[in-house]
Structure formats: structure tokens, C-alpha cells
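Hello again, I could really use a second opinion on something today. Take your time with it, there's no hurry, and the full record follows here:

___
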Amino acid sequence: MKLVLLSGGSGKRLWPLSNDSRSKQFLKVLSDKEGNFQSMVQRVWSQLEAVNLNNSSIIATSKSQVEMIQSQLGNVPTVVEPERRDTFPAIALAAAYLYSIKGCSLAEVISVLPVDPYVENNFFYRVKELETVLEDSSADLALMGVTPTYPSEKYGYIVPETKMKNSTYINVDHFREKPNEEQAKELLDKNALWNCGVFAFKLGYIINLLIDKGLPIQYDELSKQYDRLPKISFDYEVVENAKKIIALPYQGYWKDLGTWNTLTEEMDSNITGNGLVSNDSENTHVINELDIPVSILGLSNIVVAASPDGILVTDKEASPRVKELVNKIEQRPMYEERRWGWYKVLDHTKMENGNEVLTKRLCVKTGMNLSYQTHEKRSEVWTIVKGEGEFILNEEIRKVSAGDVIQIPVGARHAIKANLDIEVIEVQTGSELIEEDIIRIFMTWDEIVENCLVK
């Protein structure tokens, strides 16, 4: 069995810590066994390692999340969408990758799940069982559903044909999206399951679907023609048209940490970052990524979240509505993690003449490097404020350390490697200060040095 983990989302429900490049699964607000902060995706990957599923897993994601995944997990297998087109295209591309690049058999069982469920390890042992029930049932699709613990209005439901008996799995009659409380109680009486977004199919099922649609089944070609895939969810494109669907019940702990009120329930501390909360502020959480302190006096049942992208103050029950509010905000992500480290936008000014000035603080981690690159629409001034390393400008290499100031003209070829964590204040000046104005020449430091005249 192969696992495809879906990593997507625009990062609105946990604003301001999440944004278009740092979705909820990358927020380091949970704690591992040693008390260190970890993200949801780091937690899930460590669980996959614990149950020996990591070597069978790939992550399907968008371009904007690749470096974040590399930063947090290392070089794990990824399938990268050329553009965001919803879950059916992402899963179809992953299927083509497994078939044409990895050489998987059409009879191989593929299980798909979100990259960020908050579960115990038993959840993944249950996922393994999807392979057996799919074979035994001869179903088109095998789902996994969580046995509800209360009549939730937040989740979708898998409704069985009849009340569950002592069989391993149930036959699915239909699905019900987020009911009201009375409807949810009726669904519980029918032994309906929470839909946790986990399902399995044989690889040939999707490959044949692509053939029927006249689409390529070779990964490289499908990637080139990705815009031909319908922009639609897997549920609407595949699940609703399947002839036979079964579901495997899971009775363990499961939670979707998609909103601030649910996420804070699983956080070990009420204060993350620089914050103070008065004793009469009950069930109040502060999550602060800024250098300035945040203090709360006499306010209970609230969340205060602060990041370079903004500040949110919300009642916990109201927190799921944050997406409605911040959809009106249009700005570039102000904090991003990359494969080499991170950067934070400190200031962005647009001049009357059309020019812009953007100031960043960035960190290149020990042993990592920026690509050898040029910019066509901006010049840069770097001030090294911490650490030491090597810097290359137009094929000339030199040592750099705290206190050095570097001028990088428009079109100049440049890169830096950290021998010790390097922090830089970078001031960009130009007509269009966007990430797309990066022409990458070489990526690895060995490759860069090999192709430069070292002086």
C-alpha cells in the first residue's frame, strides 16, 4: 500500500500565523514528548515513522509549500502541482507519479489522507487495514470514518445502508455535510461516522479514469497538461460517481485542529512567545511571534495571536469565523519558512514614482545556502548581523561575518552559505519586489563553487 498525504489550504482559518505559504499544518505550536515545539505535519510524519509507513508515503502539495515541507521534514518524496486546482487533480497527478515514475502496479492500493489529522498512532494502524477491506469487499472505494463521540455540527457524516452489525466494514448509503444538532443526533442513531477525509482505491481505478477522460497517464505529460484536469474536489468527481463504497470504522481519538478554539485545546501552554496573562483571565491563550510583548488583563475565553502578518483578538467560540473577516485582507505573506531557513518582512514601502523598498530579516541555517541567483528588477543591500559564512558575487567568493555590508546591484549573480547560523537585514529597492523576480542558476553549494571562478 502507498500513502498520499494531501497538503494544501490557503491558511485563512488560523490567521495571522497561517498565510498563503504557511498553512495550518506548518505552525509549530504543538509539543512533542520532549516538550519541543512541532508542527502538525512534523507530528504526523513522526507517527508514520513509528508505524513504518513513512517509506511508503508521498506528499501531494503546491509549489508554495515545497520549501516549507523541506524545511520541516527534509527531503521527503513530494508531488508538486503546477498550479492549485483542488483535490481531484492533486490525487490524479499523484496516481500518475506512482504509476509511471515509481512503477506501481495497477493493483496497488493507494490510501489518501490529510497531512494534518490530530490522532494517536492507532489511527495509522487502522489506515493499513484499508488495503485488506478494499480487497475483501471488491468495492471501488474504501473510506475510514470516525465513530462519533457527540452530535457534532462541524463535520460531515458517512451514513451506512443499515445499522452496523458485527462486520469489519459498512456499506455506504450516502453522505451528509455538516448537519445541525438535531440532524446530527438522528445521524448518530443511524450509526453514521464522521468523515475524516481518509479513503483508499486501487491505482488502476484512477488511471483508468484518466484514460476515459482522454488525459495522459504519464506523470511528466500530465503535469504539462495539468490545466486540462477539472478544477473539482475528489468527492464530487470520484466519490459521488463510485458504484460501491465501503467504510471502515475507527473508534480512537481524532480531531481536526482547523480553528483557534480547537487548536488551543491541544496546546500544552497558554502562552507561546512573549506574553503575559493575568490570573483572572481564564482559558485564554496568547500565541505571539513578534518581539514585542502581548499582555492580557481580565479577559477569559479568548485567543490573541500575533505574527508579522497581523494581530487577531477573538472570543474562542467566534474564532472559526476569522476566515470570513480576513478574506478582505490582501497582502503578501510577511513570514515564510524556506528549505534554507526563514525570512520575516519588517517593512514594505511604495514610493510615488512607482519604486518600492522592502526590508527583510532572514536567517540561513548552519550548513544551508541560498541558490546562486540574479534579480532583474531590484538591487539589494545586505547587512550581516549574526553568524559567519561564505558569499559569492559574480563568481568571486569571500568570507563574511557579523558587521559586513554587501551591495548587490541589479543583475548581479550572488549566493551565501552559512557556516554558523547567519542572520541578514536585507533591503530591496526596485520596481517590482516579488519572489518571481528570482532567476536561479545553481542550487547546491558544491554546484555553485564548481561553476564559479574561486579567487
In short: The chain has a mean pLDDT of 92. The longest helix spans residues 87-100. The CA atoms of residues 101 and 219 lie 7 Å apart. The chain has three domains: 2-255, 260-326, 340-450.
